[in-house]
Design goal:
Helix content: 40-55%
InterPro entries: DNA_primase_core_N_sf (IPR037068), DNA_primase_Znf_CHC2 (IPR036977), DNAG_N (IPR013264), DnaG_primase (IPR050219), Znf_CHC2 (IPR002694)
Structural class: alpha+beta
Strand content: 5-15%
CATH architecture of the largest domain: Alpha-Beta Complex
Cofactor: Zn(2+)
Distance between the termini: 23 Å
Radius of gyration: 22 Å
Pfam families: DNAG_N, Zn_ribbon_DnaG
Domain Zinc finger CHC2-type: 37-91
Number of domains: 2
Largest sheet: 5 strands, antiparallel
Protein name: DNA primase
């Protein structure tokens, strides 16, 4: 069974994380007076800002659609992260080390399962996409580039849509990812 993050650590993450910084990475925030910030809500389409952030309390609220919460809630709602993933991401940003405990309250060294496995898999997918897009520029991909060009794709459009080229070697990607430090377990 997976260990859970101690409540004290979750509270520490909430206290140490600057909610304006977390939300400001996704939303352009402007001063709303009284220490509050406002911007366009990322959860619904709007033209006038109804999304308010109160850094002193560490919370946000949208008066248009009613969503609200703290930095953890923001990441779970916007990025689709689990609660634990959001806490781990924010703790990493704040430079905090989390302590995990089992159901009996005994301290564990880390989360059960591989810590950061989801991030490693996302990194592997990113590396694979970069591999294929890089191969599109190779001499062997001339036919693929002609195919894209015939359909109105220039270099910028191909980059925007992540177009790539898979070489004939069946193990080219696996070799590339292994050279980047990914294990066989992570790739299967």
């Amino acid at each position: 069974m997976a260990g859970r993050i101690r409540d004290a650590d979750i509270q520490l993450v909430r206290e140490r994380v600057d909610i304006a910084e977390v939300i400001g990475e996704r939303v352009t925030l402007r001063n709303a007076g009284g220490g509050n910030l406002k911007g366009l809500c990322p959860f619904h389409d709007e033209r006038s800002p109804s999304f308010n952030v109160t850094p002193a309390r560490g919370v946000y609220h949208c008066f248009g659609c009613g969503v609200g919460g703290d930095a953890i809630t923001f990441l779970t709602e916007l990025d689709g992260l689990t609660f634990v993933e959001a806490v781990e991401r924010l703790a990493g940003k704040a430079g905090l080390k989390l302590t995990y405990e089992d159901v009996d309250g005994r301290v564990q060294r880390g989360p059960s399962g591989a810590p950061g496995m989801k991030q490693r898999l996302l990194d592997a997918h990113t590396a694979a996409a970069e591999f294929y897009t890089g191969k599109l520029l190779s001499p062997e991909a001339m036919t693929a580039r002609q195919f894209l060009s015939a359909r109105g794709f220039d270099r910028d459009a191909a980059a925007t849509f992540g177009c790539g080229y898979a070489p004939d070697a069946w193990d080219a990607l696996a070799k590339h990812l292994r050279a980047k430090g990914f294990t066989a377990e992570e790739l299967t």
